[in-house]
Amino acid sequence: MVRQNSKARLEIRAATPDDVPGIVALVKRCYKDLPTYTPGEVRGQINNYPEGCFVAVLDDQYVGYCASMRIAGALAMTQHSWREITGAGYGSRHDPNGEWLYGYEMCVDPEVRGSRIGRRIYAERRSLVERLDLSGIIFAGRMPNYAKYRKKFADPRAYLAAVAAGEIHDPVIRFQLANGFEAVDVMEDYLPSDAKSLGNAALMVWRNPYVDHDQPKKFRVPRGVESVRIATCQLQARAVANFEEFISNIEYFVDVAAGYQSDFVVFPELFTLQLLSYEPQELSPVDAIARLTTYTPEIRKALADMAMRYNINIIGGSHPTLADDGDVQNVSYICLRNGAVHEQEKIHPTPNERYWWNIKGGDSIDAIQTDCGPIGVLICYDSEFPELARRLVDQGARIIFTPFCTDSRQGYLRVRYCCQARAIENQCFVVMSGNVGNLPNVHNMDVQYAQSCILTPCDFPFARDGIAAEATENVETMTISEVNLADLSWARAEGTVRNLADRRFDLYNVNWNRHPVQHRRELAIAPTSAGKHGPGGG
Question: Domain CN hydrolase: where (predicted)?
Answer without folding.
Answer: 228-490
